[in-house]
Structures are given as C-alpha cells and as structure tokens.
Amino acid sequence: MHSDMRAPRRLLASLLSLWLAGPAMAQSVNDTKGMAVESDSGATVLPVPDDQAFLRGMAAKAKKDGARAVQEFSAAAATGHAQAEYLLGLMYLRGDGVKTDIKQAVHWFERALSQAHALAATQLGELYEQGNGVPKNSRRAAELYERAALAGFSPAQTRLGALFESGTGVAENPQAALDWYSVAAAQGNWDAQHRLGKLMRDGRTGEIDYTEARHLFEASAKNGNSYAKVSLGDLYETGRGVPRNLNKAGQLYREAAREGEPAGRTRLATLGHPPSESNVALVKYAKPPAKPQSLKAHAVKPAPKPLQSAAAD
Asked: Which residues in the chain land under pLDDT 50?
C-alpha cells in the first residue's frame, strides 16, 4: 500500500477509537457498579481486579498447565478482571484445561463485554454469526462487531465490513464495506487489505483501480496472507493493471501452494486459462470512471455510521 495513503487511514482509525473512547469508558464504569459492595461504614466499594491471580494464570498458561490457568483466571474473573473473564471464556470455548462448555464461554464473554472488552465482543459476534452454542443471529453479530470496530479493533472492523459486503445481517452496502476495510487495512490487517483489494479490483463500489488493488494484495501477502498471492497472480495472469506475465503469475501461485494454499495449486494447474470470473467481474459490478480513481478519495471521511435498520436473517 502506498505510504502516503497509510497515514490518513491511520488517522481515521484513531478518530474512530477516540469517538467511542468516552462512551466505552463510561459504560465500563456503569457496568462495574453491579459488582459493588458496601463497606461497614456504608460507603460503596468497587471490587479490585486481582492482577496477581491473573498473572499466575498467564504463567500457568505459558507452561501449558490449562487446569491451573482456569483456576487462576476464575479467581481473577470473580473480582471483575475483564481480561481474565475473556481468557476464561476462550478456555471454555476451546476446551483448554476444562471441559468444553459453550454456555460458560458465552457467560464469561458477556461479562467481559460489559466492561467494553473488544476481543470479547468480537468472539461473541463470531459465535452468533456461526450459530455456535447460541441461536444464529447475523444481526446480533453485526452489532457486536460494531462495538469492537468502533473501539478500533481491526479484526472486528474487517468482519463488519464483510457483513456489509455480503448483506448478511445488515443491508448490503459495498461502500460501507470499503470504509471499514480501509480502517482495518490501515492498521496492517492482512485480511482487510486483501478484501479491500478485491473490492477495488472488481469495482464493487463503481470504481476500479487495479494499481491500488495490486498494492493491497502485495501488502496482504507481505503480512502473511498466502491467498493474496493468488489474487496478485491473477492480476498478472489476466494482465489487469500490469503487463500480462504468466511466469510471474506461476511464481506467485507456486509460492502460495508451497505455503499450503489450495487455490495456489488449482490456479497453477490451469495457468493460462483463468476462471471466467476473473474476466467478468468488471462487467458484473463496475461502472468504470473515465479515469481510474485512487483510494485517496476515501482516505479521510466521517466515521462509518452506526447500524440502523437491517435485513432479517
């Protein structure tokens, strides 16, 4: 990605984080009141999160002693330690040191969420999106992703963008998808970089920019996304935004295949005969501008609007 485009997108990410900072902190304080107790003098006393128990839990987890980690995280979580609540939820979800129990996982994620824990919101969103241990509810997933996205958590921003792109749980809105992908991509999220590149390549917002798509695919691949190499190879195979170069395409497919990406092997086997969608995406989605536009036009704008009405599942 162009270095001059990273700065404004980072600025947008910072603005989003600041936008929610006040309400999030206020929510955290308000939710903690439910755990308050009265002292002998009648004064309200908030519980003090047990950092020592949490640190003992982290040490046990590092030693792969899951049972001890669960014990220590439980002790810390009982005092309202948000990170301990989240990690305890993860351990119940994964069956790490304790028998898998999705209901317990959801309980602890919700406890952490009440303290504005972005990772807990995202994890809960995934459970609702997949219908894993809870009724499938894409709308609820979108709301949870939005909470974490507004707090600046790039995986949630990416997941929310994906829901807008597909119209799952929310009204389909490629522009909103582009906005959220842009914010996450500015933080170096390789999934967002790849998804944003595909939006630009396919013209989902009516704007095609193969050059920017190539830069985004390169950035995503550099950050560890093997599938981005397949997308990059596709540009070279079809000559979109770059001179057609089957050798370069083959090299990229081969690298992706070596890294375990099945699509790399598939495209390598059909090199020179790209799938039809590589050639029809432009016709399907795009209203090409007279001159390709840069993402600079989208770099700095008001934060994406909070969710309004949404399509039912």
From this structure: 1-39, 43-44, 280-303, 309-313
Classify residue 95: in a domain, yes or no. no
Beta-carbon contacts of 146 under 8 Å, excluding residues fewer than 6 positions away, are: 156, 160, 306, 307
- Structure tokens that stand for 180 in this block: 């959220």
Question: Quick check: is 256 in a domain?
Answer: yes
Q: For residues 300 and 151, what is the distance between their CA atoms, to the nearest angstrom?
A: 18
In sequence order, what are the beta bridge partners of 37?
45
Q: Is the pTM of this model over 0.90?
A: no
Give domain status of residue 153, yes or no.
no
Tell me the per-residue pLDDT of 136-153, one tens digit each, with 9 for 90 and over. Answer: 999 999 999 999 999 999
**Per residue in 197-227, pLDDT tens?**
999 999 999 989 999 999 999 999 999 999 9
Distance, CA of 88 to chain centre = 21
Domain that holds residue 269: 190-301
Q: What is the CATH number of the domain that holds 204?
A: 1.25.40.10
Concatenate the DSSP letters of all residues of 220-258 into one string.
HHHTT-HHHHHHHHHHHHHTSSS---HHHHHHHHHHHHH
Total domains in the chain come to: 1
Q: For helices 277-285 and 226-238, give the axis angle rounded to 10 degrees.
A: 80
Pairwise CA distance, residues 164 & 144, whole Å: 14
